[in-house]
């Protein structure tokens, strides 16, 4: 039995988020510039290498795997990877296999995902207005995503909607989005916009809508009860007594959640980021590629990387400056 991954601040690392591609079929304004340059395909880990990487983390005690990107479902052959990962669910080593998606490919893949053992998924959706959806995603089409959500629910997947809170964009839609989710039995999580990557001309501070205001909107319209539930991440949850719905708030900028952090992030090139808000990373690719017949060097490289997990992040929007601004895109490390 391998000893579990414990970082220098006594936090057990049990959750791995994996970006399987930096590419996407959308160009959300807060995430990418319109003319993004993507990594050359040869730099990406192959699906077999991704499998080896994830399996090594599971051997070291990771119990939850979230597949993200870019858009994970545009990676060619990705269902093979999900099917192969399901062996870890079956043997009980992995407790949850899940993904975060923009929903565009779900009509095609929802049944296969359910068959691979996926039970819950997060779907990102910032507006229910077709024109605004096209504006914010630049390349996305709302009806296609709505069909994807239908397909996911029909396949028995539990869906949580993730919505980026954008000032002057979806503030007015809070009641409509909330009711729509309630009618469909879906929880809803709001995400504060984060300073990630160069996204062209968009003004991020203009887009920032504090989740304190979002919460205040809920409190004026519903009976809001705090939930004790913690996921080891930056999310806090409340229940709306009128609808029974869980509403989440992901506030990486205005809250300190780092003391309970249980996660690390693997990029599609095999770099491990120990913290979403720090540049510090470890390249796991040499340990993987130089030792095709043994995972021990990879285990050592992972353990060594975890020893460098920082205490916390440096994001700060105070004084209207983007302190802690990150040069990499969210699509690189996964959201
Ligand atoms: N393409 C998939 C999707 O959109 O769900 C998965 C990857 S995307 C990078 C993961 C999440 O990050 C999405 O919910 C997206 O809205 C969020 N996101 C992207 N850029 C962000 C930013 N700058 N600030 C906050 N959330 C962001
Ligand atoms: Fe693509 Fe997701 Fe980024 Fe939008 S948020 S551009 S869907 S990776």
From TrEMBL:
GO terms for molecular function: 4 iron, 4 sulfur cluster binding; cyclic pyranopterin monophosphate synthase activity; GTP 3',8'-cyclase activity; GTP binding; metal ion binding; S-adenosyl-L-methionine binding. Binds 2 [4Fe-4S] clusters. Binds 1 [4Fe-4S] cluster coordinated with 3 cysteines and an exchangeable S-adenosyl-L-methionine and 1 [4Fe-4S] cluster coordinated with 3 cysteines and the GTP-derived substrate. Its cofactor is [4Fe-4S] cluster. Its EC number is 4.1.99.22. [4Fe-4S] cluster 2 binds at residues 258, 261, 275. Residues 313-335 are annotated as: Disordered. GO terms for biological process: Mo-molybdopterin cofactor biosynthetic process. [4Fe-4S] cluster 1 binds at residues 24, 28, 31. The keyword Protease does not apply. It catalyses: GTP + AH2 + S-adenosyl-L-methionine = (8S)-3',8-cyclo-7,8-dihydroguanosine 5'-triphosphate + 5'-deoxyadenosine + L-methionine + A + H(+). Residues 8-234 form the Radical SAM core domain. It holds the Pfam family Radical_SAM. Catalyzes the cyclization of GTP to (8S)-3',8-cyclo-7,8-dihydroguanosine 5'-triphosphate. Monomer and homodimer. This is GTP 3',8-cyclase. The gene is moaA.
């Amino acid at each position: 039995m391998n000893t579990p991954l414990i970082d220098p601040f006594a936090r057990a690392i049990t959750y791995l988020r994996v970006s399987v591609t930096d590419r996407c079929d959308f160009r959300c304004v807060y995430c990418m510039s319109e003319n993004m340059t993507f990594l050359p395909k040869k730099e990406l880990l192959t699906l077999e290498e991704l499998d080896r990487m994830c399996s090594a983390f599971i051997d070291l005690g990771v119990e939850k795997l979230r597949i993200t990107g870019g858009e994970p479902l545009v990676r060619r052959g990705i269902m093979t990877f999900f099917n192969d990962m399901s062996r870890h669910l079956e043997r009980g080593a992995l407790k949850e296999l899940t993904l975060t998606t923009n929903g565009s490919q779900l009509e095609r893949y929802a049944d296969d995902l359910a068959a691979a053992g996926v039970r819950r998924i997060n779907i990102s959706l910032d507006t229910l207005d077709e024109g605004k959806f096209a504006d914010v995603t630049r390349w996305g089409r709302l009806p296609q995503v709505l069909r994807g959500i239908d397909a996911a629910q029909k396949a028995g997947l539990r869906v949580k909607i993730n919505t980026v809170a954008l000032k002057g964009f979806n503030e007015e839609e809070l009641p409509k989005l909330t009711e729509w989710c309630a009618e469909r039995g879906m929880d809803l999580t709001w995400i504060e916009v984060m300073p990630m990557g160069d996204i062209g001309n968009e003004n991020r501070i203009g887009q920032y809508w504090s989740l304190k205001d979002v919460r205040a909107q809920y409190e004026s319209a519903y009976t809001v009860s705090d939930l004790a539930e913690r996921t080891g991440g930056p999310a806090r949850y409340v229940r709306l007594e009128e609808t029974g719905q869980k509403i989440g708030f992901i506030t990486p900028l205005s809250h300190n959640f780092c003391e309970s952090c249980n996660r690390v992030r693997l990029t599609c090139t095999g770099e491990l980021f120990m913290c979403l808000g720090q540049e510090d990373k470890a390249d796991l690719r040499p340990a993987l590629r130089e030792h095709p017949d043994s995972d021990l060097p990879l285990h050592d490289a992972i353990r060594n990387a975890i020893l460098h997990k920082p205490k916390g992040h440096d994001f700060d929007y105070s004084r209207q400056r983007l302190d802690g601004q990150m040069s990499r895109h969210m699509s690189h490390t996964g959201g």
